[in-house]
Amino acid sequence: MKIVDIEKIKGTDREVQGEGWTSYRMLLKKDGMGFSFHETRIPPGAELHLWYKNHLEAVYCVEGDGSIEDLATGEVHQIHDGILYALDKHDRHILRGGNKEMRLICSFNPPVTGRETHDEDGSYILVED
Amino acid sequence: MKIVDIEKIKGTDREVQGEGWTSYRMLLKKDGMGFSFHETRIPPGAELHLWYKNHLEAVYCVEGDGSIEDLATGEVHQIHDGILYALDKHDRHILRGGNKEMRLICSFNPPVTGRETHDEDGSYILVED
């Protein structure tokens, strides 16, 4: 059994920041669960163009608000507490912050190693251990 | 892209209840993510004896409080907002509700099909589609 306290991750290499997002990697590939598990915070007004070509991702909002634009269809879905989106087709999308910081709980398959960065497409490059 | 609203799951077969728990299966095996993704509520005073012999599970608390007892070591870990536990060794455990209903976000590997029930060991039996 592993216990992970987000307060103890802050300031370590499991806290990763970019423009418009901060992510806490609670579980990574090396934790051996077969998925990774993150908490990500999106501030009001952020706009992220993302395309996880190599990963499937589920994202569940538990606080705050924002929206996601599906670039395949043009549809915009509002996000708030209790809304999950699943990128089951490696969907290209734009994630936008709303009026209050969004708190998102995310799971990735395959698991993120922690050494990925977003490339020019907004994708995570696959990293082998 | 799939959008899942917990309010639309309530009262359907994706809402599952037992003594001391209610679970909302946001993503199941058939959703094709390679993991399942649930929100589970544990009321104050609940005591659940669990042993997922067939699954790895990560559980992240985002509201409320409780505790988990690791039956391999006897250790008791307090659970509150920001604490994750990972059952990376199919750990036998007792999950206890605290003073305020716990809101837990859970991911299972392999994904739950939605047709499992807890057996006499507190395990989910593997179900093939």
Automatic annotation (TrEMBL), chains A, B:
Q: Which GO terms fall under molecular function for this chain's record? A: ectoine synthase activity
Identify the Pfam families for this entry: Ectoine_synth (PF06339)
Output the InterPro entries linked to this UniProt entry: Ectoine_synth, RmlC-like_jellyroll, RmlC_Cupin_sf
Keywords per UniProt: Lyase
As its record notes, the protein acts as a catalyst of: (2S)-4-acetamido-2-aminobutanoate = L-ectoine + H2O
* Family matches, as CDD domains: cupin_EctC (cd06978)
Q: What is its EC number?
A: 4.2.1.108
GO process terms (BP): ectoine biosynthetic process
Q: In which pathway does it act?
A: Amine and polyamine biosynthesis; ectoine biosynthesis; L-ectoine from L-aspartate 4-semialdehyde: step 3/3
Listed HAMAP family: Ectoine_synth
State its role. Answer: Catalyzes the circularization of gamma-N-acetyl-alpha,gamma-diaminobutyric acid (ADABA) to ectoine (1,4,5,6-tetrahydro-2-methyl-4-pyrimidine carboxylic acid), which is an excellent osmoprotectant.
Instruction: Describe the family membership recorded for this protein in Swiss-Prot or TrEMBL.
Output: Belongs to the ectoine synthase family.
Protein name from the UniProt record: L-ectoine synthase
Q: Which organism is it from?
A: Aquisalimonas asiatica
- Give the taxonomic lineage as stored in the record: Bacteria, Pseudomonadati, Pseudomonadota, Gammaproteobacteria, Chromatiales
